[in-house]
Amino acid sequence: MNIGKIKIFKKGFRAYYLLVISIVFLTIVIQSMTQYSLNKQRSTALIVNLAGKQRMLSQRLLNELYSCRYHNCDYAEMKLTLTRLYQMNGFLQEGNVGLKLETLNDPEILKEFRRLEPHLEWLYSELKDFQNFKNVSFNDVRYRVDRFLFIMDGIVNQFQKKAEKDIRTMMIIELELAIFSIVIILFEIFFIVNPIINRILDQKKKLSEIAWHQSHVFNSHMKNIADLQYVLKVEKKPERQREIYGFIEQELNHLKKVSQNMIKSLEETVEDPKPHDLMIRKVEGFLEKYKLMGTEKTLIDDDKVHSVK
Q: What is the mean pLDDT of residues 147-154?
């Protein structure tokens, strides 16, 4: 894939891209699961808290009615308590966007709420009109409140059990995700990181071979060519000069062989032109300039320095 002159997902770097992408992906998944778990626990804790608060409101409703019967009556507080009790019962079942409550979909808990409905509806219908307070039987109200409290205790316990079940489920999912992450990391170590390390070590070995050729074989032949060039300058006989040119050609063949070995070592490491190629081209140009290159090139397999006899 090319964008302008920039190459994306170059073949030699696919393993690095896969390693980085997998690490980023695992980080995003783990963080998402953590945030989801925290939000789920917050929502569950809020539901249990509100359900428990319903029991307190039912007790307060009975106390307010008793005060209205035998002491000073606070109609506003009575009305507010009754409204909260009735509205919160709907929020716990149908959900609420402002409180970030989801719709209840547990059939067992919904069944208990249906048992609760008649008592709550009776309290709301009988007590919503403050002018009817004196006509309502206090014993009937206490019976309804006791039944409401009993059923609401069961609902709170069911909410707590559901919360514990959800937490255990999230723990299992997080454990499976952790195991999956470890498997992915081990896979990357054996099939991505380890081959990368081996490739680096192999490149280091190739560079060591190149350094050895450069420091020993290549320099040896270059020194021999320099010596032959010096002898060529002082030699006056044409026959001896042609013989020296032949020796230079032999040394050049050795340099070509060394160059081929260096190219072979570098073919998977670098792709730029090698400095020794330029040197060999210059020597060949020098010999071709004076038409001293032979038609057949004789290669000698040893790496010894050859001098003029």
A: 91
Identify the CA nearest to 210 among candidates 281, 278, 268, 282: 268
Cα–Cα distance, 292 to 80 (Å, whole number): 114
Give the model's pLDDT for residue 1. Answer: 45
Q: Where are the domains of the chain?
A: 14-194
Note whether 252 and 280 are within 8 A (CB): yes
CA atoms of 150 and 133, how far apart (whole Å): 24
By CB atoms closer than 10 A (0-12, 13-18, 19+), residue 253 is middle
* pLDDT classification of 274: cutoffs 50, 70, 90: very low
Is the pTM above the cut of 0.85? Answer: no
**Tokens of residue 97, six digits:** 């966007």
Query: What is the pLDDT of the chain when averaged over all its residues?
Result: 77
